[in-house]
Known about the structure:
Blueprint (H helix, E strand, L loop, with lengths): L11 H17 L2 E2 L5 E3 L10 E7 L6 H13 L4 E5 L2 H9 L12 E4 L3 H15 L11 E2 L6 E7 L3 E4 L5 E6 L5 E3 L29 H5 E10 L2 E8 L6 E8 L12 H17 L7 E7 L2 E7 L4 E2 H7 L6 H20 L2 E2 L8 E3 L5 E3 L6 E2 L27 H17 L11 H4 L5 H10 L10 H12 L1
Antiparallel strand pairs: 1-2, 2-4, 3-5, 3-7, 4-5, 6-7, 8-9, 9-10, 11-12, 12-13, 13-15, 14-15, 16-18, 17-20, 18-19
Amino acid sequence: MVKNVGMSVSGNRAALLEAEWQRLCELYLPLQQSGSIWRYHCTKPTNEPERGWKLHVSATVLNAGRVLQKVAPALGGRGVQFKAPSSLRHVMTLNAGLDGSYTQIGKIITVYPHSPEHAVELARQLHKLTSRMAAPEVPFDQRYRRSSNVYYRYGAFAPLEIEHANGTRTPAVRGPDGKLIPDRRDQPKPDDIADPFEQPHIRRTVAGKQNPFAASYRVVRALAQRGKGGVYQAADLSSKPPRLCLIKEGRKHGELNWDGRDGRWRIRNEERVLSELLAHGMDVPRVYSSFELAGNAYLVMEFIGGETLQSLLARLRRRMPISRVLKYGVQLAEFISMMHAAGWVWRDCKPMNVVVTSRDKLKPLDFEGACRINRPDGMLWGTPGFIPPEWHTQERHTGRADDLYALGSTLYLLATGRVPSSTVLISPAKLRRNIPTELSQLIISLLNRDRRRRPSATSTLARLHQIAY
Length: 469
């Protein structure tokens, strides 16, 4: 299942920025290899080292063009090889850090210096050129200065790989003995290589500022990592006795979108949503506290034990019994009905965001993309398969209909074992013999391409009750 990524729906700002990016690429990065997302300044110099210190200049999708405009003339004028993504869509993909590419976040412009001394000189110049510009942090790389957008790591310049017995390949770099060793993105420097950038005063921590992680929480494990922030299971030591909690991180400039919202904004939004839903008596995770650290936002909430509905579906050997489909459908419809009555649209209803507790009760999670019904959000937020078809047309609306379509997609998946097609919708009755006709018809009505003809959550709840009981 594809994870959610915010996308522009107005298009104007995105189109203008993309056009400018393409102009700059044609000017400064004329070369592109077939099948690659990268564009290059020039062909590989014959005297380029096989490995060495690489520089990465970070940027957001909104200022990537300005960053490239600043650094490209300085690099190109000195004959330095560098590369950047071929489109701003690829910039967004890199900064999202999805599908195993977490180490690539922020690596928008990659520079290949000729020597360690050259690397230090270029880093100094690039730091001055991009100072005070917004950008996400690059995971694992060393930062040139505490507030710099320039990062560095030691690795391969040439595309070397180690082929394993099972056919998989690992990026590699040639070691001192000439043998290939893994080129690990999470290790910026081999132990036997001196750091030419080393400046002890840069690495000092800021005194006098209490770190809540150290004072009140002990992280047990990271449950997820991506550009907008991480999700951590932790022990809350401020509670007596200590209790398990979930800490969601919203990174400053993390996955900055066309509308200027970043991971920090999303976490603050989720705190607002949860606080209001709790005030309306809804069964959502309790908020324990929130704080900021190093410009990032953190939300501490109740840890919900169990497995996601998506995980449960994945381990079932047979399709879910209809009685259980109806039971879960009733719970989801009741929740969405209450959420709509409270004045909110979830916009991210899907099995991955629903936990099945030990009592077989559903607990909805993840409300960072939710918006008020009377204040529609023009930014698409959701997961393919659960996003209504109108988002792909000119008739774009954010409202209750988004959740109703996602509810229909979820019921379709529970009943048939597959996500409904966005082009040709096959009736659940044709995919499963024993499904009640009334349930199949209800699911089809929730997936209606005309958003105005989808039944309300309250009406859906009543019909599910009639079918189940």
